[in-house]
Amino acid sequence: MNIKVYVPRDATALSLGAGRVAAAIDREAQRRGLRVQLVRNGSRGLFWLEPLIEVASAEGRHAYGPVTVQDVSSLFDAGFLDGKPHRLHLGLTDEIKELKSQQRLTFARVGVIDPVSVEDYVAHGGYAGLKRALALSPSEIVDAVTQSGLRGRGGAAFPTGIKWKTVLDQPPQQKYVTCNADEGDSGTFADRMLMEGDPLTLIEGMTIAGIAVGATQGYIYLRAEYPHAHRALDEAIASARAAGYLGGNILGSGKQFELEVRLGAGAYICGEETSMLESLEGKRGEVRVRPPLPAIKGLFGRPTIVNNVISLASVPVILAKGADFYKDFGTGKSRGTIPLQLAGNIKHGGLFERAFGLTLRELIYDYGVGSASGREIRAVQVGGPLGAYIPASQFDTAIDYEALSAIGALLGHGGVVVFDDTVDMAGMARYAMEFCAKESCGKCTPCRIGSTRGVELMDRVLANVDRERNLQLVEELCDTMLHGSLCGLGGMTPFPVQSALKYFPEDFRKTVQ
Amino acid sequence: MSADRALRDPLDDLSREQVEAALATYQGRPGPLLQVLHEVQHRLGYVPPAAIPLIAEVLNLSRADVHGVVTFYHHFRQAPIGRHVIQVCQAEACRSMHCEKLTEHVQRKLGVELHGTTADGRYTLEPVYCLGNCACSPAVMIDGELHGRVTPDSFDALIAPLS
Ligand SMILES: NC(=O)c1ccc[n+]([C@@H]2O[C@H](COP(=O)([O-])OP(=O)(O)OC[C@H]3O[C@@H](n4cnc5c(N)ncnc54)[C@H](O)[C@@H]3O)[C@@H](O)[C@H]2O)c1
Ligand SMILES: Cc1cc2nc3c(=O)[nH]c(=O)nc-3n(C[C@H](O)[C@H](O)[C@H](O)COP(=O)(O)O)c2cc1C
Ligand code: SF4
Ligand code: FES
Ligand code: FES
User: Fold this and answer.
1) A272: CA distance to ligand 1 center in Å?
2) Which of A134, A202, B22, B86 is the least crowded, having the fewest Cβ atoms under 10 Å away?
């Protein structure tokens, strides 16, 4: 019998050498005349252990990591195929502390299954949600999503069920389901990991959405920077279609749903939903004035669901296990779980799916074990380039939408970027303005002109030219951008700038050498 | 070839064939322009400005429309690239791990600035804003292959085998 060995095809694991390790295992097994079946799974998200390889056994999967090509022959010598001890042996995967303490609902299968095998997917509970949905009426499906308390995981946290209801309530016509997989935020990779590690969950979620609102065509708008996710999605879509889960007659129900991946082209603004729709139509990604909302007039002018990858990928478990099951996780108005992404200057970076309510400190120190440099952690930026910087004094804040908003921050897509005490916060504030200037779609003045002006002002501050006066002007500019911009790019770029000014004023007043 | 010359060059027969093949693949689908441009860039390494009239004509768009789209997106290149494309992430998580210093090293090592191509046509160096590898910063992509926790030394080792 072939022994199953799992080596991730996840982009981060590959960036650390997983591809070479897989090839070495294959070679070594052949050389020794052993029969090994390599499965290219997603990542468990514990990136300090990648490349993490696993071996199937009767008592569960044994984990070894981080494995390099040089370790492979000694792993065979030690008998890793039988789960024997080795310097890199981590015990049973399910018992790894940082994995065991998570509540994996959306990411339940990521790292576990072969991402593009429908058979494996179904064997691990996949498509139970779709089967349940096919037995419900459209409004019952929408009600279940509303009842679950699921809010948009792209960052704006709008209730998903209410958005779907708006689309359902539009008269029958061509409608669309679009998935926002632009994931432009630095510090975030949950969408990527899900699409690489369990793309069928996203496909199932979109299919359920289509059936719920009467949309027959779906598009995944994927950023061009994610070639590995692109391959996994294309393979998974082909498998789903071949198995009758996509196409003209889904599981013999008479319902129809088709799906296509379309690539972005390196524009951050195309993550904003109306810019994304323009881009999907093959145009410049200029932001549209809302209203009308995409739910009413979206892609090609038709009613359209726009949802983030994680929002859509959370739908199958909600349908399969019920709205109450999902809702029982979390706190206050933040229901369910959130895949937190811990990144930047951190020792143990990765993805940790937890019910809302963990504190920043627990995330950064219990999971992250402090900075990668070993130096003191000075700040974190939560929620991407448009999110506020949070100083160490506020690390006891709970990670939920309301608690973060209460301290003037936002959770966004759940990315947490860690900075040690070598960070120059004035430099980061300048960078925020520079990024906005580079990525502005140009439609409105406060953003287009304001961000360029912001860079100039910050340059004067940094050069200590008329410093206090220019800092005053930065504050006024932030106010103008905040209130006068058409979309969140211009409207939220002030958040990192203002928070840096507020909590780290000394960085803006250093003497220039 | 300089960007300037590329702008004036007519489309040679080989490139024309490639552009026509790209158009044939996506023509007829709804809103196909971005997909066509990706396909052209995959085949030629860039989107030759001389291809714009042809693309416009086949897709029934104005040249200004097509030009507007090509220039809106950072991803589309208007001049030929080097044999190897090296992208160094400049976004926040990589900044927390001092990607500015790595970028300086890369520029020195390759002898080219960001957005440039070396005189021998070997390397094109580009900035990129997040590769989704933020827990293993700084991140670099070389010819579509992703690398994490890159140091000046490991960078040198990565490019050593490239011709
Ligand atoms: N994931 C990333 O990479 C990333 C990058 C940048 C910004 N963001 C996030 O984007 C957020 C801003 O996004 P936004 O401008 O789309 O926010 P928004 O609050 O305007 O809209 C949120 C969503 O709800 C929908 N909506 C709002 N009212 C509705 C109604 N009455 N009926 C039906 N649907 C309705 C909108 O169409 C949209 O889909 C920020 O909070 C930020 O965190 C995410
Ligand atoms: C500048 C900007 C960039 C955005 N980028 C993304 C993105 O990359 N991914 C995403 O899902 N949402 C992004 N959003 C939010 C979308 O506009 C929209 O709210 C979201 O896709 C809706 O899906 P959800 O309700 O499932 O979160 C962005 C918003 C702004 C203002
Ligand atoms: S705020 Fe900036 S990105 Fe948004 S619409 Fe205005 S110019 Fe475009
Ligand atoms: S040219 Fe756009 S993804 Fe390759
Ligand atoms: S910020 Fe560099 S990979 Fe995400």
Assistant:
1) 8
2) A134
Domain A330-420 belongs in CATH node 3.30.470.20: no
pTM for this prediction: 0.97
Alpha carbon distances (Å) from A433 to A287, A352, A409, A456, B25:
19, 30, 18, 9, 40
Q: Is the bond into A8 cis (omega within 30 degrees of 0)?
A: no
Among chain B residues, the shortest Cα distance to A11 is held by B146
Do B112 and B47 fall into the same domain? no
Which range of residues forms the domain containing residue B41? 3-72
Domain assignment of residue B25, yes or no: yes
Domain count, chain B: 2
Contacts of B135 in chain A (CB under 8 A): 12, 47, 189, 341-344, 346, 349-351
Task: Write out the DSSP string of A247-302.
Answer: BSSGGGSS--BEEEEEE--S-GGGGSHHHHHHHHTTS--PPPPSSSPTTTS-GGGS
Six-digit token string for B136: 């293993």
Count CB-CB contacts under 10 A for residue A170.
17
B62 and B126 within one domain: no
Q: What is the pLDDT of residues A50-74, one digit of tens each?
A: 999 999 999 999 999 999 999 999 9
Average pLDDT, chain A: 97
Alpha-carbon span A373 to A423, nearest angstrom: 12
Calpha distance A177→A210 (Å, rounded): 6
Q: Do B88 and B153 lie in a common domain?
A: yes
Return the CATH superfamily for domain A118-327: NADH-ubiquinone oxidoreductase 51kDa subunit (3.40.50.11540)
Taking the CA of residue A263 as reference, the ligand 4 atom at the shortest distance is: 3
pLDDT in tens, A185-203: 999 999 999 999 999 999 9
Beta strands (DSSP E) in A400-502 are 415-420
β-strands A330-331, A304-308: how paired?
unpaired
Q: Which residues of B touch A384 (CB under 8 A)?
A: 92
Structure-token pair, residue B55? 């693309």
Fold of the domain built from segment(s) A425-509: de novo design (two linked rop proteins) (1.20.1440)
CB contact under 8 A, A187 and B148: no
Architecture of domain A3-100: 3-Layer(aba) Sandwich (3.40)
Q: Are residues B91 and B135 in the same domain?
A: yes
State whether residue B37 sits within 8 Å of chain A by CB: yes
Mutate to test the interface with A, among B130, B137, B140 (most CBs of A within 10 A): B130
Considering only CB atoms, B76 lies closest to which of A186, A265, A282, namely A265
